[in-house]
Every structure is written in structure tokens, then in C-alpha cells.
Amino acid sequence: MPTSPTGISNNTRGFTLIELSIVVFLLALFAAMTFPMMTGVGQNDLDASARRLAGTVKYLFNEAALDGREYRLVFDLGQSTYKAQRLETDGTLTEADRFGKETRLKGDARFQDILITGMGGRSSGEVTARIFPVGWMEETIIHLQDDKKRTLTLRIRPFTAETEVHEGYLEF
Known about the structure:
CATH architecture: 3-Layer(bab) Sandwich
Number of strands: 11
Number of domains: 1
Strand content: 25-35%
Shape: elongated
Order of helices and strands: HHEEEEEEEEEEE
Mean pLDDT: 87
CATH class: Alpha Beta
Structural class: alpha+beta
Number of helices: 2
Largest sheet: 6 strands, antiparallel
């Protein structure tokens, strides 16, 4: 053990300038990687709403094929919400098990309009898209928008219920 001239052992150790520089560099690197993710939080609400809606459509499409019943996706354009319903064998509509509860789009995302083949487009009120047990649903175009006027177009394919998500307002 090194001792000082006074005979007391000097057992204190510190960080070197190189070690401190490496720690500061790593902290700066992590901050630089994290900051861009934090600035796009509002933009991610629109993307997250599109992904969740696409997942709901695919789930309901598969459920309709599995249990042989018609499902409906009901959009409330004014409230920016949607819910799933199942058509029972006696003709009544009930909440679908997993997605029957009303779901609100995330953050400032909202429905701009919805177009369903054969029914035209609507920008207010309620719109219902039907999903049939024979493996088909009405082709549906959904336009989502946020407060920054960023728009996404969701196109739901009728025979597969695959949802294409496109940047901007597109008409097919």
C-alpha cells in the first residue's frame, strides 16, 4: 500500500480523465439517439392509431371466418372512436369479445373521412363496415389526420382484410 510522507496510507482512487470522457461521450450518444424519438411523439399517435385499427380489422376478419358470423366495425367519426359488433344467429348485434369496447384513436388522431365501396364516403356521423364469414369484407378507405394536418390513408383489401397504410390523402 502506498503511504504518504506522514505515514498514513493513501488508498483513495479516482476516475481518470479518459474514463470520465468515455462516460460523458456515452451519455451524449444515448441522449442523441433518444431525442429524435421524443420529438415525434405526436406523429407516432397517428401511426399507432393506424396500426391498431389494421390489427383490429385483421382480427375481426379471422374471427368471422372461424365462427361463421358476420362482424361489423362501427366508426363514430365525430368522436374518433370505433367498436366491433357481432351479428348473432337470432339477428341481434352484440359486442365482439375482444374489440367490442369503444376504442378512441390515440392522441390528436381523428377520422377525416371513410369511403366504403357501394356506399360512398362520409365525413361525419357513424359508418359501418361489414365483415362477412365467407372471407370477404367491403373495400374500405379510411383517412386519418392529426392536428398538424398530417394524413394517412388506410386501404382495406376485400378478400384478405390486409390493410395498406399510405402517407397522404389518396383516393383509389
